[in-house]
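Note to self: keep these together.
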Amino acid sequence: MGTTPIITTKPVTAKLAKDLYSIQTLSEKDKEQLRTLIIDYFAATYAGYKQNRAFNEAVERIVYPSAAGPEESHVFLQSRKYPAGKAAFMNALYGHGAELDDGNKKAAGHAGVHLIPAVFALAEKLGSTQEDVLLALAAGYEAYIRISSAAMPGMVKHGFHSTGMAGTLGCAAACARLYHLDAQGIEDAIALATTLSGGLLSYGDSRPAIKPLNPGKAAENGIFAAMLASQGVQGPTEALEGQNGWFHAVTDQVFEDMLEGGDHLLLHDCYFKLYPSCRHTHCGIEAAVDLHAQVKDRLDEIEKVSVYIYPNAIRLAGIRMPGDQDETKFSIYYTLACGLKNGSYGIADMDPPNLSKEIVGIINKTELIPDETMEDRARNIRGARVEIAMKDGEKIGETVLVPKGDPEKPLTRADIIDKLHVCAQGQADEGTLSRLVDMIVKMGGEERFVNPMTAV
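Structure:
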């Protein structure tokens, strides 16, 4: 995979916009993947609505009373409608609260959690067709993944959260499609979004509950950028590659080949999450779960647990002893300890953190060791190797280079529906969830779009 300095000679933004405009039809396979991604978004949103409740309530006290304007779009579990931008903001905020939403390894961030709320909110406002919605989502996934992947890993090293930064651009492109803008209009929407994008990784240092603000603002600002473009407002030319363009701000190196896409729509390269925690914890959890049977009756005999994992994982999910449910989402130590002790990891382990004597004991014996070989974009891996040294000298270990839910280890539609039922437990009955799934799996065609938010 070739690398180049910051792009200054090729019309990158214009070329990308033309590629996005060229997505005019979807295969049934594309539509099926989008429907599964939408079901998964609702699973994550049920979990995030409940799990991040203290933060959610603080935002609700500010946003709902002040969201004056036309009643355009539905919000998750709310009875009234709100202006499209605010509806998208809140739905993205809820969707990211439990760290269960889809993502992409090369983009190093989350896609559906901002794209689906933005497209649904604007489509409801505009009276779009179901086909319009699916095409917009496909273009948005393509835009987000291409742009973010091209800027990685520099974007992370600069301290930017791609879900917010590149997410704003992806949402702008998707929403431009709902306005039926041509390639120039899509380019303008992306260009306008470059000056509206934001999102830092500072949540990884402390107080991670605020992380959902990043996809929330991406969804809201992406809609606004597309609205401006629909009114004929033009953004800067060469907004990505220009001398003062977006790439210059977020990275020192651009991977040009990532901007070209692939031989299929990149929405098929997204992963689904089984565990309510940052994706950087998942390989460690899976390895620990696999090792559980060998150590469950010998936890007190463990001398040391060595976790060989790529440096960015340690940087972004290296909280040792989580103080609350928010910090559990970014703790390789804690999630792995739960996996070793219990043979599983789930929502029940989050709040309050299950800091039992045995869990604390495992954490205190665990060391995270930076290992660059555990991350390789060319091989599409971001993994972990867990080695356990027992007091009697025995050593056991497990390596997971690709966790379950990645395209290489795919989940089925039934798996995602099961996830929805688990995440919605106590918030929705079986009839509600069946209606929601039925509405989503039938999505497509020229019928007017009905927001699935109305089903919950």
